[in-house]
Amino acid sequence: MLLKTKSDLPAVPLRLSLFIIIVLSLCFANSYNGDFVFDDSEAIVNNENVQSTPLKDIFKNDFWGTKLTNKQSHKSYRPFTILTFRWHFWFRKSLVAQDYHLINIILHTFVCILLLPTFIVCLGSRGQNTAFYATALFAVHPIHTEAVSGIVGRAELLCALFMWTSILLYYQSIYANKLLYRWCSMCGCILSIATAMLCKETGITAIGICGIYDLVMVNKILPSDVIRFMKMKYTYAEAKKFINLKQKLIIRLCILSVSGLMLMVSRFSVMGFKPPTFQSIDNPASFMDNVFLRILNYSYIYCLNVWLLICPEWLCFDWSMGCVPLITTYDYRIFCVIIFWLILGTMIAHIFICCDDLFLRYSLMGLAMLIIPFLPASNIFFNVGFVLAERTLYIPSAGYCLLIVIGLQKLCNRVSVQYILLAYLVLISLFFARSWMRSEEWKTETSLFRSALHVCPLNAKVHYNIAKNAADSGNTTLALYEYKEALRLNPNYAQAMNNLGNLLKDQGKYIEAESLLKRAIELQDDFATAWMNLGIVLSALKKYDESEESYLTALSHRIKYPDCFYNLGVLYLEQKNYDKALKAWKSATKQKKNHGRAWRNMILLLDDLGTRDDALKVAYQALQYLPDDALIHFNIANILGKVGNFVEAEVHFKKAISQNPTNSMFYTNLGVLYHRWNKFDEAEHMYKKALEIKPEFNSARDNLRKLYTLKSSIK
pTM (2 decimals)? Predict the structure, then answer.
């Protein structure tokens, strides 16, 4: 039976199809003015590869800016995605979230536009109608919100773009008239797959889709044919005849296989042939000793992924830490797993039993595009660092959308086309509205994290992120409550212990902070941040030797850690070990050129030690990296004023004031400069300006009184 039925969904002209797809793809457009949220901060804002490191380092580090050889690296190698982030920064000279969001929205539109010819290629000219309806459904699917509205989802968008390109080029390599064009197209296909892989690892799966397309659609080889072929006994002559008949297919599949093997070996060599290490909280099922229970939990996660494709109502930025409780005993969720495997088993049996049928071949292509790109996230070949991630469904959802439309076309034989079309339009409208609302939630961390409470109230990471967001906005009460709630849900949550300890440290509750931080490093002995924070607490408790040991331990786990060097310098300063303090701050500025606190402390210490020439030398060096730092200009002005260089000191005081016009100290010290310079009117004006800003500023008031006394004595 052919897919072409007595009645079909209405045909749509190509130009109108493209226009509709473009309009529908803008369902995420309201996220254009969103902030950097969740993983965006780690991958972009705090990632030096995006802003300052040499370009070659991008190809040595993982997606988060960590050396691939580092044991803490997640081994996610996506240098081309990071390059696109870097281009934004290079163009604007600053991090503007709106730029990144706009490009993501545009990329999603291009992915949708390119998916239409990809579907047409995969289904053949008779499937053009099906291709349009499947692409339109893909354009609005709410499961894409994380990939489009979350900036780090750029990896999925770029990967999809080059995967669709590789399929189109593979089609050209089969049907191009000239041999040169065929080989150029094949080379372009492999290059596109490699590029997709350098955007995100999933790109390698395009090889499988191309292979299935060649077998099923081009050569019309079905699973039943493979079984029949294996059962039959062929003579040498018959086998040779078959090989000659399928010579081009065999050559293409060999090229795909060899290329795929080379790409995988290259990929593993980059990560030193060592898999990433994850904690049990990242993917609890992978740490279960019982193989049966592990498979059962994996199966339930597959069910959830399918359900999110069918009904994307429960969407959450993170699905770890209790969001999906493990199945350890009898559980009603086991029935979901049984139903899932029964349906999948029935589909597989149908595929192997049925003979040549266009509906079957279309379904095989849909299944291939659904299952093959999902395999890297399936825990089958290697453990992944998440329970469920919505953005990993961006590419597989193309296969799901294709299967849905194929099913609708099939139903047109039994149900009125008007009803089918109405149901389709309702689904499109619901998906568009859901995508629009969900992308609104991705605009700020506050709305994103709070939306997760309705889906995963038992997820400790949700409460952790709400607490972190509250602490950043100054809501300490909420932050304390949410950190404690995160630890109640997961008593071994080292990151929550560290952040709660850090919060208590800021409140002067050092004993409680020390206890939490020590517990955090017991759970995770290579937790560099916790070691550094413990060092700060121990220093506050006057336990200097233990504090120094904590800082040095932090540095042993993270060699590049400028903040730790800075705090180590502060410790040495308290101990009056000035040489070591200067050395530590110098290390901080070497690792982070714009580390303002380290530069300023060096300047002040050198000035206090009486080495003003060295202080000025360091200060002018600091200005190369921090030309607009008000405090550095202020420190330079003070030093120049002390040595009697009033003219240049005035210039730097005014620069400091222009950068921070509300600092009363700047006006007071400039007033002192004028006072010493015998510019009494200017001095009086500066003192009065300081008192306008801060009426209780005694230094300015005393200096103004002295000035009036001096002026009176002169008169």
Answer: 0.85
